[in-house]
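One thing: mind reviewing this one?
=====
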Amino acid sequence: MQRRHATRKMTTIPFNRSAWIGNEFEYVHETLQNGHTSGNGPFSKKVEDLISLEIGCSRTLLTTSCTHALEMAALLLQLQPGDEVIVPSFTFVSTASAFMLHGAKPVFVDVQPDTLNINPEQVAAAITPRTRAICLVHYGGVGAQMELLMPLATKHGLMIIEDNAHGLFGKYHGKFLGTFGSLGTQSFHETKNIACGEGGALIINDKSLVERAEILREKGTDRSKFLRGQVDKYTWVDVGSSWVQSDILSAILFGQLEQKEDIYRARMKIYNRYEGELASWANRNSVRAPFVPTGCEHTAHVFHYRFERGEQRDQFIAHLAKHGINAVFHYQPLHLSTVGQQLGGKPGQFPVTEHAGDCLVRLPLFSSMTAEQQTRVIEAVASFCP
């Protein structure tokens, strides 16, 4: 008699997975019980105060997304038609579209080949009399060269905005990312280190911008003053929109922030294991690993490789997929997008960005990733020969 052997199905290792390791469920239940589920509730205040105290900014305002925080930054700039904002081409679309939505033209520049952060030399060359701001990205939570970018902004009277979606609690030469410029933005999307599904924050370092930022976020009203008892009623005083985060999401976020040391420690352990155990494979196959300059305390947000050719990257992703591992590419060059080409973008214009768009791949990295899961990834990577 023949025995039928059951086929064991291989479990897919996702690229990312949110981990609820603290009091997230209890805090959501508390929010539902106390009846304050809209914005500006007790958990929103706890989160805003915690972040402001930790990083030392003037004010943190929770928003519905990092995109909306960037749109608030654009409004605070009081942009006019014809104004320009310099942004890297290697970034998520929101970094550029937020300013374009409010009348400015995004001016793209290339990134540096080592960190994939905005190239200060290209920023300097792109400044014109119409330039109003520089919006930089700390890619992967590795700080951009602020010692070069800040003097450029000061010299030309420009505002610095830090798209710090990857870099919460990261540091550059001892100073928190997101606190160099007048404004910073954060993301709490489910793919981020600290997550609540959807959400963001505007980090305000210039005190003169706090009052108007509160108004913009509250539909253009002075409701924040009313909630603090500073006025007996609130009214419409400026343009604005509804960018206040629900206290349900803030409850999740507070639970995450209480566990931030454990979350970051777990991510760093995974990052360091990839870096150490796959170093010889990367060197042997001329595959470029992440680079962290001296003075950077990164956030272990992304562990990526860059192959020499795009077809190698695509074959690598397919190879890992056969092993039940979800590895993904990242940004596609904005200057080559439909809108980017309408703005004058051309192939070959920014070679580092274009190469990264074609050749970069990110490995799975999430705080609840088990040692066994990471071993599977490492073994699959090591078995690939470009």
